[in-house]
């Protein structure tokens, strides 16, 4: 920028000097051409025409104006040159200040460069130290890993036989658990299939043995229906029995109670009507009390028998107990129906209610867990 200003000032000075020289040459030419002595000019004294007086006056006035213009121009030029010299001095001073700042910046840059070099060397030293420490740590870690691996190998060798036995035991236990689950599932399915195969059967309990010596069991069953629920015979006519027999089939004289009678109906609707009627009132036959229930499998009957004591106590307390298929107990308590699959569940339930537990002084009987669905 400073170099540009100096070139501009130099150009201005050269332009001023050139204009001044051209003006002086022009003035000299005019003066010489119109000189009264006639010593200068291209024409000779003899060939010179006569110049009118008004022209000479005009020329003199023009020369006067030119001299005044030249004086003004020289005056202005001097002022401009003074201004330019002042600006040049200021620029020179600024240039000196800038040079000093540049020198200062160069010194600072040199110092920064030296500091950067020192920092770079320090970083390099630190990096080398870290690398050495890292290498040493890797060696130590590898050594520790080798020692740990050696210890693990020794431990595995010492525990291999015991671990093998434990694994075999675990596998065998899992197999046994799976077998037990499968057995329970199969037992449940078998009981369910047996109960479903007995859905058309009714079990008659308490019928004396001597009655079927005089009459067949199907006739006795029809008479029982006629005596206790005649409306069924009036609606359906004759009750068709597919098969009826005592269970067990062989009489045991040591038993004090008569064997149960199993009757399979051909019409399931009639069987259900007889069963519902037996639930409403006790049946009698020739003065003897007989009880009619749904025929179920032996395991289901055993599970239902486990509820006997609890069922009687719940009925005394007015809990409206019911045995639902296959062997689920339900009671009505505090406006809600509660269901239990096993006596253990019922005992845990009443243990949470001290007032109810005091009323039920019944120890739970062992029973097989039954199905949760009907």
From TrEMBL:
Superkingdom assignment: Eukaryota
GO BP annotations, alphabetical order: retrotransposition
UniProt feature, compositional bias: Polar residues: 1-10, 158-170
Region Disordered, annotated ranges: 1-51, 125-177
Pfam families, per database record: Tnp_22_dsRBD, Transposase_22
MF GO annotations: single-stranded RNA binding
Residues of the L1 transposable element dsRBD-like domain: 298-357
GO annotations of cellular component type: ribonucleoprotein complex
Domain L1 transposable element RRM: 199-295
InterPro entries assigned to the protein according to its UniProt record, in alphabetical order: L1_C, L1_dsRBD, L1_RRM_dom, Transposase_22
Basic and acidic residues bias (residue ranges): 40-50, 125-149
UniProt-recorded name of the protein: L1 transposable element RRM domain-containing protein
């Amino acid at each position: 920028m400073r170099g540009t200003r100096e070139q501009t000032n130099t150009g201005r000075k050269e332009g001023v000097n050139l204009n001044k020289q051209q003006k002086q040459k022009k003035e000299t030419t005019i003066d010489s051409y119109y000189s009264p002595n006639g010593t200068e000019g291209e024409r000779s004294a003899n060939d010179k025409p006569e110049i009118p007086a008004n022209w000479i006056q005009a020329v003199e006035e023009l020369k006067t104006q030119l001299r005044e213009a030249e004086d003004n121009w020289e005056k202005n030029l001097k002022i401009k040159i003074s201004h330019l010299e002042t600006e040049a001095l200021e620029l020179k001073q600024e240039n000196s200040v800038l040079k000093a700042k540049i020198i200062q910046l160069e010194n600072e840059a040199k110092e920064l460069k030296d500091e950067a070099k020192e920092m770079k060397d320090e970083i390099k030293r630190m990096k080398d130290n870290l690398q050495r420490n890292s290498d040493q740590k890797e060696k130590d870690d590898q050594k520790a890993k080798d020692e740990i691996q050696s210890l693990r190998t020794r431990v595995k060798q010492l525990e291999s036989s015991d671990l093998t036995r434990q694994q075999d035991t675990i596998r065998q236990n899992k197999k046994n658990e799976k077998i037990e689950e499968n057995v329970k599932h199969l037992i449940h399915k078998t009981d369910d299939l047996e109960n479903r195969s007995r859905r058309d059967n009714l079990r008659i309990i308490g019928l004396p043995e001597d009655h079927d010596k005089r009459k067949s069991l199907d006739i006795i069953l029809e008479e029982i229906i006629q005596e206790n629920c005649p409306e069924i015979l009036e609606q359906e006519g004759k009750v068709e029995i597919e098969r009826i027999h005592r269970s067990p089939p062989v009489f045991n004289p040591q038993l004090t109670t008569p064997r149960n009678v199993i009757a399979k109906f051909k019409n399931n609707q009639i069987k259900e009507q007889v069963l519902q009627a037996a639930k409403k009132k006790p049946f009698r036959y020739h003065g003897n009390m007989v009880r009619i229930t749904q025929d179920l499998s032996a395991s289901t009957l055993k599970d239902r028998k486990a509820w006997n004591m609890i069922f009687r106590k719940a009925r005394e307390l007015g809990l409206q107990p019911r045995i639902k298929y296959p062997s689920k107990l339900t009671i009505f308590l505090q406006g809600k129906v509660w269901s239990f699959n096993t006596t253990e569940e019922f005992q845990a339930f009443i243990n949470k209610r001290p007032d109810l537990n005091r009323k039920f002084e019944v120890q739970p009987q062992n029973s097989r867990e039954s199905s949760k669905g009907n």
